[in-house]
Design goal:
Number of helices: 1
Number of domains: 1
Largest sheet: 10 strands, antiparallel, barrel
Structural class: mainly beta
Shape: globular
CATH architecture: Beta Barrel
Number of strands: 10
CATH topology: Lipocalin
Helix content: under 10%
CATH superfamily: Calycin beta-barrel core domain
Strand content: over 45%
Distance between the termini: 23 Å
Oligomer: single chain
Length: 145
């Protein structure tokens, strides 16, 4: 079973922690997974909150769509608070989404995995414009009852 099938089989609200391995910051995270019509993919609504930063409590907000393409493969289209354009990422290996031919204001890759039914890992790697990718946000979540 692939990542899309795993997520379509276990939709709902996932909650957990988002950790930044570069700074040690830990935030509360929530991702709602909603199947697309026909089981073609899922939508993600992702937010993280950091009580240690009262000026920017909401550290991340994202709406993304992950879907199978007709010609094979999967794409992830994400809109988030860190840019005023969407990023179109293509699956380069199972669960790993990288920028395709479209440009982006900064390097970005997202890794999505379902290590067990009802578990979701959603990892952002990014860098400064023109810089290298660095894993910065690792959300490890569990499906709420």
């Amino acid at each position: 079973m692939g990542i899309i099938e795993d997520l379509v089989a276990h939709p709902g609200e996932y909650v957990g922690l988002d950790r930044d391995p570069t700074s040690g910051r830990v935030s509360a995270a929530r991702i709602v997974v909603t199947p697309l019509p026909g089981g073609a993919g899922v939508a993600f609504d992702y937010e993280s909150f950091n009580a240690d930063n009262p000026d920017v409590v909401r550290g991340h907000a994202e709406h993304a769509v992950l879907g199978r393409t007709h010609g094979g493969g999967s794409v992830l289209v994400t809109g988030h608070i860190h840019a005023d354009t969407v990023a179109v990422l293509r699956e380069s290996e199972p669960g790993v989404f990288v920028l395709g031919g479209e440009s982006s204001p900064f390097p970005l890759a997202i890794k999505i995995s379902v290590p067990a039914p009802g578990r979701l890992d959603y990892v952002w790697s990014f860098g400064a414009p023109g810089g290298e990718l660095v894993e910065r946000d690792r959300a490890e979540l569990t499906l709420s009852a």
